[in-house]
Prior knowledge:
Layout: H1 4-19, H2 21-35, H3 45-50, H4 52-66, H5 75-87, H6 94-110, H7 116-146, E1 155-164, E2 169-176, E3 190-195, E4 204-209, E5 219-224, H8 233-241, E6 247-250, E7 267-272, H9 276-289, E8 295-301, H10 310-318, E9 323-329, H11 334-339, E10 344-345, H12 350-355, E11 363-367, H13 370-382, E12 390-393
Parallel strand pairs: 7-8, 7-11, 8-9, 9-10, 11-12
Antiparallel strand pairs: 1-2, 1-6, 2-5, 3-4, 3-6
Helix pairs in contact: 1-4, 1-7, 2-4, 2-6, 5-7, 6-7
Site (Involved in heme-bound ligand stabilization and O-O bond activation): 29
Domain Globin: 1-138
Binding site for heme b: 85
Amino acid sequence: MLSSNTIQIVKSTAPVLAVKGEEFTTHFYKTLFTNHPELLNIFNHANQKKGRQQTALANTIYAAATYIDQLEVLLPAVKQIAHKHRSLAVKPEHYPIVGEHLLEAIKAVLGDAATDEIIEAWGEAYGVIADVFITVEKEMYEASAQQTGGWEDFKNFEVVEKVEESDLITSFYLKPSDGAAVPSFTPGQYITIRLSIPGETNLFNRQYSLSDASNGEYFRISVKKEIGNPNGAVSNYLHDNVETGNTVEVTAPAGDFILETNLGTSVYLISGGVGITPMLSMLKTIAKEQPARPTTFIHAARNGSVHAFKDEVRETIEIMENGKKLFVYENPSDEDVRLGAFHEQGFITENMLKALNIDKDALYYVCGPVPFMKYVISMLGKLGVGEENIRYEFFGPSIDMKKEEAAVVK
């Protein structure tokens, strides 16, 4: 238990660190990777360059400090982060290293104000927070290893099939190289792919949603090619260099953006671009396990050439008793028009959703680019859907959607 004095010190200094969040996190990561370059084999380099990892860390530190005397409030966020840590093979021995550099960063940012009492208080608080993460992650590692076909860290998988789904998205079908069983997973979860790219010093880790229902035979990931984007090193390498017969390292499925199959409520699956991947896993699972469950699948794409899985979605909806679909194309081609490949042109709007007679008590799953999600979540709120009914997933470190509301396109 932390003393009342420690709690008071941490809470009183947290706002100062929040104001200096960028300076604090930049200093932290710079010294961490300088002193421990081996940790670059774990962290996503692209998120570092874009500042997303720094922002996520600042938000986490501030939240932990704010609720240091009632950490149970943070448990949902802790579990979300712990899923990512387990998927990246973060271990207990990493926490003291991180703690040492966090305290060093606090000293650097606070300067003369960083008294021994303040540093000791933060050291105590970090120890308690680290223990919470280590405990949660230990349970996750054990659960991962103990399930049928499970394992703990990374395992070699063979690419048994590579399929082009659209001009931008390609699917990779993966099976264990040792011929072992493929563990089950919950629709919406992801796996981490680890690659060694020729010419690069460090390993690369990327997390990709599983795009098919759990089947015991293979994992399928569907990857967007990031043309001209230097941050798409892994995605582009997979497209250009990884072929059938090649081997990649994989961690067991993780993530808490999952379909709630224990409920009979209506479901709306709303996606944009490559955000379709976890939604397709959810849709196919509903079709297999709850075919009578009312489900509406809404997908936005630029046009038919970049719209992946349109036939797979159509075929899945056809075998469902209460399935509906809505494809919205921003800029359809003449071929799209001729084939009747879409239902609406432009962007998803409130009027489109109203026309569907949306059920305010349904569950809404949203996935896609951050601006897309901000917009859709804002629209759902205007239509009377409560926050408790909305689930969303974005790729990369966590951000605070509520803080992003001001940026929603009106």
